[in-house]
Amino acid sequence: MQDIDLAVIGGTGLYRLAGLEGAGEHRLGTPWGEPSGPVRVGRLRGRRVAFLARHGESHALPPHRINYRANLHALKTLGVARVLALNTVGGITSRFAPRVLGVPDQIIDYTWGREVSFWDGPGSEVLHAEFAEPYDPPLRAAVLSAARSAGLELVDGGCYGATQGPRLETRAEIARLRRDGCDVVGMTGMPEAALARELGLAYASVVIVANWAAGCDPAGAAAPPITLDEVLGNVEAASAALPRLIEALLSA
Ligand code: HPA
């Protein structure tokens, strides 16, 4: 099979990849079950690119029901080596206001009860993936350099706190994440990043800030509760830059 230059995993509000031409639909079964939906493989800037909607193309899967193992296994089977994950998040620290894009460099995992490893079950090896740098440094650097060449602003670095969801967090939970050093909070960053590492995939995330996390709006208690429409509006506005970013990444 011809190699794929890049796979993009789309998150909330990101169910198609703009500009992906001639996309063939791959519906793969895996030893770990069914992926979230078809993997679409087409051409972008003359390069072969795969796209998978993490929550399914009609957003039917909540974060804790996503089969992260099947998704990554399917991408690996198709010949993917690099994965760019798009993750919608809430902003905790001041650099991560709504509509900001960022490339985090650390993760703290607060999720529970998810299938976290391929090295699982009878007969499998017991292995421990190196994960001090949870995102692939060369891919992160390539994304940041692509942003510079496309004239886009991306926050470099930051810690992603992965929560279980599907509910949003309490103010106390977000205060704890802030004390722990988290800059953004989302529900899908783990175990995806760790599973990618187990498969030897180069994996990096671009976070899209949809809202202030609970209690983080600088307007304080006066801030009205955010509506779903506003959240999706912020994701849509910030995502407008993503096709240019991905094209610049493929042109590098
Ligand atoms: N918390 C967790 N996940 C999220 C949020 C949030 O505030 N916003 C978007 N994804």
Per-chain topology:
Elements: E1 6-10, E2 21-26, E3 39-44, E4 47-53, H1 68-77, E5 82-91, E6 101-103, E7 106-109, H2 137-150, E8 155-156, E9 159-162, H3 171-180, E10 184-186, H4 192-198, E11 202-212, H5 228-239, H6 242-251
Parallel strand pairs: 1-4, 1-5, 5-11, 6-8, 7-9, 9-10
Antiparallel strand pairs: 2-3, 3-4, 5-10, 6-11
Helix pairs in contact: 2-6
The chain binds hypoxanthine.
Bound molecules: hypoxanthine
- State the share of residues found in helices, binned by percent: 25-40%
The CATH C-level name is Alpha Beta
- Proportion in β-strands: 15-25%
Number of strands: 11
- Total helix count? 6
Keywords:
single chain, 252 residues, alpha/beta, Rossmann fold, globular, binds hypoxanthine
Description of the molecule:
The protein has helices spanning 68-77, 137-150, 171-180, 192-198, 228-239, 242-251; strands at 6-10, 21-26, 39-44, 47-53, 82-91, 101-103, 106-109, 155-156, 159-162, 184-186, 202-212. Strand 3 (39-44) and strand 4 (47-53) form a beta hairpin. By secondary structure, it is α/β, with parallel strands linked by helices. It is globular and about 55 Å long. The protein contains 6 helices and 11 strands. Strands 1, 2, 3, 4, 5, 6, 7, 8, 9, 10 and 11 form an 11-stranded mixed β-sheet that branches. Helix 2 (137-150) packs across helix 6. It has one domain (6-251): Rossmann fold. The structure holds hypoxanthine. The site of hypoxanthine has 12 residues, from strand 5, strand 10 and strand 11.
